[in-house]
Write a structure and sequence with these properties.
The protein is mainly beta. It is about 10% helix and about 60% strand. Strands 1, 3, 4, 5, 6, 7, 8, 9, 10 and 11 form a ten-stranded antiparallel beta sheet that branches.
Length: about 180
């Protein structure tokens, strides 16, 4: 099986260009009740990972999000990530807000099952390593309801694996959070 690396992939430059265009076209986010009166959201994410998702708004434009759950890239794993996010309001309507976001943060994986994968590496190549570390760059969109304290989000996160080997992979998910 062929192993793909960041150097051989054209996905990273395309993702960075898309993010730069989206940031340049969007206005700064203005907080609705989510992010100002209700700064913390907790819910679920389905995808890679599948588990618990949380987000805490530091101010109207910046937040920290996290997820803990089952990861599938590289085999069955406990997946943990945390990201610092920048928000840009695309639509600010009386019924909903629609911010775009981009960020950066670490991703950790602890494999509890057999794994054989072209991104993190195979057991034959890397040995019996059970721990993985990488950096992810999530970008997504959040549909924030103004009548109820819920948001629905969709994100894609290109990532670079650093340990046990260097490689490129993509995570993503669909989630729902309740805001406190």
């Amino acid at each position: 099986m062929r192993r793909y690396t960041v150097a051989r992939s054209g996905i990273v430059p395309c993702a960075l260009l898309l993010a730069a265009l989206a940031i340049g076209a969007a206005a700064p986010a203005r907080a609705s009740d989510i992010g100002s009166g209700r700064p913390f959201g907790l819910g679920i994410i389905l995808g890679d990972p599948t588990g618990i998702s949380g987000k805490w708004y530091i101010n109207s434009e910046n937040a920290i999000d996290f997820a803990v759950g089952a990861g599938w890239m590289g085999g069955h794993s406990l997946h943990i990530h945390a990201d610092y996010l920048f928000h840009f309001m695309l639509v600010n309507h009386s019924a909903f807000d629609l911010p775009l976001y981009i960020g950066v943060g670490p991703v950790f994986a602890f494999w509890y099952g057999d794994r054989h994968d072209p991104y993190w590496g195979s057991r034959d190549y890397w040995g019996d390593e059970r721990f993985g570390l990488g950096v992810r760059v999530p970008f997504g969109i959040s549909f924030q309801f103004n009548a109820v304290p819920l948001d629905l989000f969709l994100e894609v996160a290109p990532a670079i694996a650093l340990l046990p080997g260097v490689g490129f992979f993509i995570e993503g998910g669909l989630g729902l959070r309740y805001w406190f």
